[in-house]
Amino acid sequence: MTVVELNPRRMATLMALVGRCVLRYQRIEHTLKLLLPHLVKPGRDLEESVPDWREFLDSKFTLGPLVEKLKPGLNSERPDDAHSYLAIVVAERNDLVHHFFTKGRALTGTSDALENAIVEVRRRLENALPLEQTLLVAADRFAHDLEYSLATDLDDEAPHAL
Question: Are 146 and 42 in contact (CB under 8 A)?
């Protein structure tokens, strides 16, 4: 078998894309860890719905288990489509993290395999973007609402001028 030298720039491109993709999945995980303890599931009381936030600090909660905890609280006109999308993002994350390089897709020694791997990682990166953006907007709103709530509480406790 002849060993083919792959273009180092294209290999660097692949590695950079894999890094960006892993970072996107981590941002999704961390944002879910922030938001999940504060989501109130429809039809439930606050005390019944909100788990202990410390539960989510456990590193064993990766994207799959976090998404499973998110699903019951989703408010979607098409919940089956939303659940399917979430399952795809989780499967793509798991494949990238656990199997992408061991399956030899990018490292088979052909430039075609390398180019296909680059296209595939770019696709995964783009596929996870809507979830990341939605969660980051929700986290920003949560932080804003929390800041407003704290400021209001402090105003209520301040002595009022006559």
Answer: no
